[in-house]
């Protein structure tokens, strides 16, 4: 995946970004919770770090083992929040079409936005029961990722909480490694040079 990827049009980038925002802070955990391959998560994380949406900190864990911890930046949080608001508006439209029994409008809207369904499910923007009911109404089958998120999506937050507990334990066991370097890593990454408004304006998220 190229570092020139337009993240605004990549649902999987937002899934990974959302996972990191919840404190799921390493590639293995993200892969497990987001239902994405480890290799794809690694590529996505590289993109997110390159565009200053995420910072990557190397720490030493138990017995001096190196570990990478990921943290969302202010720029990343802002971008994620804007995307979630955009997707919430889309879900409201779908619910309106569904409640009105307007299958043609719902089908057309689904075709245009199908790629974002996994992100809506993962982030909890769309209720799983509503999604499966809507798909049934339209006579559409779930793709593998939609199916896995529908089956296990409710466990995503629990997995994140468990991971956070584990991360806290690691941090306590090697507190000497959690030092001012983290603060230094956060500082310069928010100059917004890569996000001056041109790349992520209203038009950048069109479907």
Summarize the structure.
The protein is mainly α and about 210 residues long.
What does the model show?
This protein is mainly alpha-helical and 207 residues long. It folds into 2 domains: 96 residues, Winged helix-like DNA-binding domain superfamily/Winged helix DNA-binding domain (Arc Repressor Mutant, subunit A), CATH 1.10.10.10; 71 residues, no CATH class. Helix content is 58%, strand content 7%. It has 10 helices and 2 strands; from the N terminus they run H-H-H-E-E-H-H-H-H-H-H-H. It has a two-stranded antiparallel sheet. A hairpin with a 5-residue loop joins strand 1 and strand 2. Helix 1 packs across helix 4 and helix 2 crosses helix 3. The protein is elongated, with a radius of gyration of 18 Å. It starts with 10 loop residues before the first helix and ends in a 20-residue tail after the last helix. The C terminus is likely disordered.
Any descriptors?
single chain; disordered C terminus; two-stranded antiparallel ribbon; 207 residues; Arc Repressor Mutant, subunit A
Silhouette: elongated
| CA gyration radius, whole angstroms | 18 Å
Q: What is the name of the CATH superfamily of the largest domain?
A: Winged helix-like DNA-binding domain superfamily/Winged helix DNA-binding domain
- What level of helicity do the residues show? 55-70%
Topology:
Elements (H helix, E strand, L loop, with lengths): L10 H11 L5 H8 L3 H13 L3 E7 L5 E7 L1 H26 L3 H11 L3 H6 L5 H11 L5 H9 L3 H18 L6 H8 L20
Antiparallel strand pairs: 1-2
Helix pairs in contact: 1-3, 1-4, 2-3
């Amino acid at each position: 995946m190229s570092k020139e990827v337009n993240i605004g049009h990549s649902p999987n980038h937002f899934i990974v970004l959302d996972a990191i925002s919840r404190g799921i802070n390493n590639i293995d955990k993200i892969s497990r919770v987001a239902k994405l391959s480890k290799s794809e998560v690694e590529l996505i994380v590289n993109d997110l770090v390159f565009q200053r949406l995420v910072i990557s900190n190397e720490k030493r864990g138990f017995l001096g083992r190196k570990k990478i911890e990921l943290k969302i930046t202010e720029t990343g949080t802002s971008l994620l929040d804007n995307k979630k608001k955009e997707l919430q508006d889309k879900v409201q439209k779908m619910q309106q079409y569904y409640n009105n029994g307007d299958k043609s409008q719902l089908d057309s809207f689904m075709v245009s936005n199908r790629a974002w369904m996994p992100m809506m499910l993962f982030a909890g923007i769309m209720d799983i029961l509503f999604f499966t009911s809507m798909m049934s109404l339209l006579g559409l089958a779930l793709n593998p990722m939609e199916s896995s998120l529908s089956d296990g999506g409710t466990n995503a937050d629990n997995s994140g909480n468990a991971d956070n507990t584990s991360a806290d334990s690691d941090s306590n066991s090697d507190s000497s490694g959690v030092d001012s370097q983290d603060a230094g890593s956060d500082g310069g990454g928010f100059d917004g040079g890569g996000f001056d408004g041109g790349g992520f304006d209203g038009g950048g998220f069109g479907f």
